[in-house]
Amino acid sequence: MNKSIFRNTGLVTLVSLLMACGGDNKDTPVPEPIPEVVAPDTPAPEAPIAAEIANGGFEEDTTGQTTPVGNWVFRPDQESSATSTIEIIESQEGVNTYKGTKAAEVIVNTLGDNPWGIEIAYEDIPITGGKNYEFSVWAKGEEGTSADFWIQTPAPDYGQLSLVKETLTGEWQKITLTAATAEADSLVRLAIHFSKEENINKSIYLDEFSGFILDDVPAEEIPDVQYSEVTAQSLKALAPNFNIGVAVPAGGFGNSIIDRPEIKTIIEQHFNQLSAENIMKPTYLQPTQGEFFYDDSDELVNYAKDNSLTIHGHVFVWHSQIAPWMQSFQGDKAAWITMMENHITQVATHFEEEGDNDTVVSWDVVNEAFMENGKYRGEKTTNDSADESVWFENIGAEFLPLSYKAARAADPDADLYYNDYNLIWNADKLDAVINMVNDFQTNGVPIDGIGFQSHISLNSPDISTIQAHLQKVVDIRPKIKVKITELDVRMNNEGGIPLTYLTSERADEQKQYYYDIVKTYLETVPEDQRGGITIWGVIDEDSWLQNWPEPTTEWPLLFFNDFTAKPALQGFANALKELIEVAEPAPSSELLINGDFEAGLDSWQARGSASITLDTTQAHSGNNSVLVQGRTETWNGIQKDVKGLFTADKTYNVSAWVKLSDDSTTVSPGIKLTLQIEHTSTEYLELTPITTINAGDWVQLSGTYTHSITTQESAALLYVESNELTADFYVDDVSVTLVE
Ligand code: XIL
Predict the structure, then answer these.
(1) Residue 638: C-alpha distances to residues 661, 685, 707, 730, 731 (Å)
(2) Which atom of ligand 1 lies nearest, measured to the CA of 421?
(3) Do 542 and 548 form a contact (C-beta atoms < 8 A)?
(4) Mean of per-residue pLDDT scores for the chain
(5) Is 24 in the pocket of ligand 1 (CB under 6 A)?
């Protein structure tokens, strides 16, 4: 065979996306109800063929298999002299499989005479000629190993449609190939070649192959959309005593927030609680029996502590995302109970902390124990393949109260939740959960709240359904808490007109829906029963819905991929603004003299080339503010000598109000309060996160600062600066108070 004939298709787009592992899971939850679709009058044109790859995740195969189900061909030793092992392996999700428990492993021994000596191929994928297709696969290989990923026409031509040569990094990475097919094409093959020096005696893992037709609208034609304005500066500032959470990947998990400053800025500006999207799940915390892995989750806890965030723990007991050893654990009922309780006890104890230091303040103890018909998952009352749970199957319904008792014993202070999907609209399921809670309460089993996951679609369920379902839980006596734990709002409803980009109209519909949900929650759930609202991810691109239940483009969250806030965030903020009464701050001892400029400029000074003038036309409070102008460097601004103000090991609330001088400007600078300290060295400490200011409004810079410098200071300057070199702004009400 001659593999060197390449066909020049004119346009071959190669896209190689380097993404780390996000994990995904196909068996939860059941999709939300879908709005009815009215059949079109004229028959739709014949749909192009989808480019399906069967068994793309190798989950249908058994370990050691070399002839996987589907059109797969493993060729470990073509061209006589090549030798290698290519077979299906089993591993824990996220380790040597990207998703599920199976993947293909390639171990290269000797290279053949040709680069295609060692090959994995999926043959004869049906496609519609003349259309653009995208294929993707997740790969992991030791750093420096590599592979060539091809889309070709079938034998004997092997025409080149797309080639990506990828060097692997040691992490799971997604390889994406885009292929423009010719009118005459009806089949393509996807092939990967491994005969390379750097691969000798190394393992490469491959998982989750998929292919689909790209929409006819090329990316360049997406118009530059003007979305409605977002002026909200901080969700959490609008609701100081209300949990506003977000789920994040962290630690060694792909896309970890720890390495993403833009994501951290968003979190610190808007949220006061975090959920671990994956790294506190059983498979992650106890990958091997008796061996607990806390490195990643501890990193998350420390980050939360440093930024005054709490954590909602997710999750002790779930049928999904449990390690293979747990899934196939052998033992009688008593042994299963011991194993389950041990996991809960160990994990809860690890994260338990006392008093103010307590960061993990609540837990999903059990997740998704019920089916849609209100029966236990694993009771097999349905034909649903998801009707399986090792917990119910090995322990019976008793696993539920036992879990909550173990959790309470290990962490007496944490709020214990039962968490599930579709509770927000499925009455059978919600009633079953409420019955369980009533039962617990009658029998003295601890439970503090119900978590509504709320993976929902735009306008489905409707608001009255949401209200009624929240109300049912509010009405439980004794009272328990109500928490929305995993909110995301899918925009590409199946059956609706698929979006190729988020239009301004749809974005506003999403804004309205978020507004309605938050408003309904706040109107329905009394303050003492509010567990809070958590969004399942920060930027749209990171949402699990991009891959679940199949690859798609989605816009479910509050932030665009460029880290700017979506109209949906404004919807959330508007509801908070309307419904949460922010109590007047308790009287506190102000440490800064004349921070409100009512006594004139006093000891305030210009910093750098800026000039400062007292202004009596603008004030956040009182009559005066200061106008800062003429800045030429980011660090220029207004400053005050604060030598001796801060005491070691004490914590302070620091705040200032700022407003842009030009109400018509389109510049949105980031502004912050900084402390310059001279002691053994010069340090510049950020006292408030950089806060973006839009024209028109007074905006608060606010932060908590713990003074950890113990050496004698020779100078200390508190100042307001901006990352925008020349921004002019007013400053008012600069304040520093001691946190008692
Ligand atoms: C999802 C995560 O978002 C994905 O990254 C992971 O691959 C699968 O799990 N219900 C839950 C969450 O309780 O834990 C799930 O999170 C989404 C459904």
Answers:
(1) 15, 16, 21, 10, 9
(2) 10
(3) no
(4) 89
(5) yes
Asked whether residue 495 carries a pLDDT value surpassing 80, the answer given is no
- 572-625 confidence digits (pLDDT tens): 999 999 999 876 555 567 888 889 998 889 889 999 999 999 999 999 998 899
Indicate whether residue 268 lines ligand 1 (CB < 6 A). Answer: no
CA-CA distances (angstroms) from residue 145 to 139, 195, 337, 425, 703?
Answer: 11, 10, 44, 49, 46
Q: Tell me which residues are annotated as active site.
A: 368, 486
pLDDT digits (tens, 9 = 90+) for 673-722: 999 999 999 999 999 999 999 988 899 999 999 999 988 899 999 999 99
**Cα of 278 from ligand 1 centre, angstroms:** 7
- What is the bridge-based pairing of β-strands 102-110 and 203-213? antiparallel
Q: Is any ligand 1 atom within 6 A of the Cβ of residue 255? A: no
Preceding peptide of 249 cis, ω within 30°: no
**CA proximity to 737, closest of 654, 649, 675, 650:** 654
pLDDT of 11 higher than 70:
no
Rounded to an integer, what distance in angstroms lies between the CA atom of residue 254 and that of residue 176? 17
98 Cβ contact list (under 8 Å, min separation 6): 21, 23, 57, 138, 140, 172, 205, 207, 208
Residue nearest to atom 16 of ligand 1 (CA): 277
Beta bridge partners of 319: none
* Amino acid type, 494: E
Spatial CB neighbours of 19, under 8 Å, sequence gap ≥ 6: 173, 174, 254, 255
